User: Which sequence fits this backbone?
């Protein structure tokens, strides 16, 4: 029997549909690129903290539809079903359906308008293991090797999205920055 949307699903996802923060869970084509990029950063004296690598598709599904229903962007009946996630989005009452979805949005800590105007993606590169969220820190200037062995000097910037030198460094390793999402890097920049 399906369980109605609400807090239950946050608890469920936190034991059945977890994110990984392990580099070994990344796609086998992306993983060596990330390893080489992070090694270069660490060799140069930077610290790298990885928060998310691979995202469970079930988690992405719950994120996406709870966001859309709670924000009134679709009706509960519009949500697709997913094998292995026996959720009922429709409480038979529009306000209750919205409230159930909102409990999930809050429980997952999803960013809603105005902080984020798009629903969490169903096709994020994280699901394929081709994206990573990480924080890179250093003081002043970092003298760091590109893939070809040449050394770049990169000044620290609080706003990582604006640090085009750092993006160039990543690109030399095949790791591209999504410039609208501070911790996010991927194989194609999305
Ligand atoms: Zn990300």
Assistant:
């Amino acid at each position: 029997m399906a369980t109605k949307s609400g807090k239950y699903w946050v608890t469920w996802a936190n034991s059945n549909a977890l994110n990984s923060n392990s580099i070994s869970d990344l796609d086998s084509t992306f993983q060596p690129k990330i390893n080489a990029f992070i090694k270069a950063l660490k060799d140069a004296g930077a610290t790298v903290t990885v928060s998310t690598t691979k995202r469970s598709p079930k988690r992405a599904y719950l994120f996406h539809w709870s966001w859309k229903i709670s924000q009134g962007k679709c009706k509960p009946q519009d949500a697709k079903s997913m094998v292995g996630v026996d959720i009922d989005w429709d409480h038979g009452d529009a306000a209750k359906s919205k409230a159930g979805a909102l409990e999930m949005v809050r429980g997952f800590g999803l960013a809603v308008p105005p902080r984020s105007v798009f629903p969490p993606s169903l096709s994020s590169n994280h699901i394929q293991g081709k994206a990573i969220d990480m924080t890179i820190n250093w003081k002043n200037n970092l003298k760091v090797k590109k893939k070809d062995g040449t050394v770049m000097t990169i000044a620290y910037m609080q706003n990582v999205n604006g640090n085009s030198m750092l993006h160039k460094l990543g690109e030399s390793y095949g790791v591209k920055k999504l410039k609208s999402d501070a911790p996010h890097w991927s194989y194609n920049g999305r």
